[in-house]
Amino acid sequence: MHLHKYEKIWLVFGIGSLALFLAVLGVAAFAFGHQPPSHMTTVDSQNLSEDPLFSEPGLTQINESTYRATLIAQAFGYNPNKIEVPVGSTVIFEVTSADVVHSFTIPGTNVNFMVTPGHVNMAEHTFNEPGEYLVICNEYCGTGHHYMQMRIEVISQ
Amino acid sequence: MGKSNLEMKTSTITTKNKEDHSSLKGTLYFVLFVGSFILVSWFAVFFLYLSRI
């Protein structure tokens, strides 16, 4: 098969770009542990009040600077709707939905994931700047969607 | 009466500027243009992600 010289150039360019993208993502995932903001843990969304993880949603301290925030998203808010952590804390968010698909988005950070009923949706973030962080839902979930929000207070010590 | 002399119109056969239809130079430039746009935007998004970690 005859390939024009230019065709060879752009085939190398295209395949090389794909290889480069995969290499960068592979190194980020396997060497630096950048995982997508979810995993496969499931939960019974009809029975959250009896679930060991979600019966008492809130903030628990794991170690000196790491917290786990267990949150339930539901139309149209989050439970609890405010958490407080000291500056420099890493917070592992574990969020599920009690009804429809919501999202959990902290603008200006990498925390932006869908909250699907039946799944424990996870992400973690280290809060290095004190202040009040807004959390919003960016999956249209009903007539009160635009009111759906919570706050994360990052307190300087 | 002067019969207008029909001037023989020398129809100059315009030899159409024969393009080489097998030339892929334009295609190459455009492929590289689109490719570099994809490459630059991919890295822009990736570095935005890294800056927010």
TrEMBL record, chain A:
What CDD domains does UniProt report for this protein, alphabetically?
ba3_CcO_II_C
Q: Which InterPro entries match?
A: Ba3_CcO_II_C, CcO_II-like_C, Copper_CuA, NosZ/Cyto_c_oxidase_sub2
Database matches in Pfam families: COX2 (PF00116)
Q: Please indicate which superkingdom the organism of origin belongs to.
A: Bacteria
Is Iron-sulfur one of the keywords? no
Query: Where is it chiefly localized?
Result: other
Where the record annotates domain Cytochrome oxidase subunit II copper A binding, the positions are: 64-157
Cellular compartment(s):
Cell envelope
Q: Which keywords are on file for this protein?
A: Copper, Membrane, Metal-binding, Transmembrane, Transmembrane helix
Q: Which reaction does it catalyse?
A: 4 Fe(II)-[cytochrome c] + O2 + 8 H(+)(in) = 4 Fe(III)-[cytochrome c] + 2 H2O + 4 H(+)(out)
Q: Where do transmembrane segments lie in this chain?
A: 9-32
What this chain does, per the record? Subunits I and II form the functional core of the enzyme complex. Electrons originating in cytochrome c are transferred via heme a and Cu(A) to the binuclear center formed by heme a3 and Cu(B).
What name does this protein carry? Cytochrome aa3 subunit 2
Organism encoding this protein: Evansella tamaricis
